[in-house]
Amino acid sequence: MATNSVLAVFDHVDTLLEAAHRCKASGWGFQIISPIPLGHEIEHEFGPRKNWLRWFTGFGAINGFIFGWVVAFGLSVLYILPRGGKPILAATPTLLVSYETTILFGVLWTLFGFFVLCRMPVISKKPFHPRIAVDGFGLLVEGVREDNIPLVEKILKEHGAGEIERIES
What we know:
Largest sheet: 4 strands, antiparallel
Distance between the termini: 12 Å
Shape: rod-shaped
Number of strands: 4
Order of helices and strands: EHEHHHEHE
Radius of gyration: 26 Å
Structural class: alpha+beta
Number of domains: 2
Oligomer: single chain
């Protein structure tokens, strides 16, 4: 059976959140679309979202540190310049280079992670309703089987959805 989506437009945030709770309890995935930020309300109702960006930053920082060590020690071994009793493989200059590459790679991977998690550039077309951009709040219920669509529409109508649209995938 094919899975489809249903887009419902609500006038008020509280009715939208009640419908989202019902959809979550029924096991359907959903997305809340809003013309204004609703971070606090959504976090209060559903708990904080997981922040995956720190994993990108950590991965980049660790790889930057390793890259800095490899480059500094590799160049010291490749181009040996003996300097009056000083060690060829010194830790202090290597730490300075590793520190800088740690920061550089951490920042670059954070930027890359930001684009990945924001889904930029947008490849697939997202559903849109003109009222959501002005004064309405949208609830996109995803992954609904064809035989459950009337049930989803009934639940959304019960919770005060003004307009309901089926979206074929």
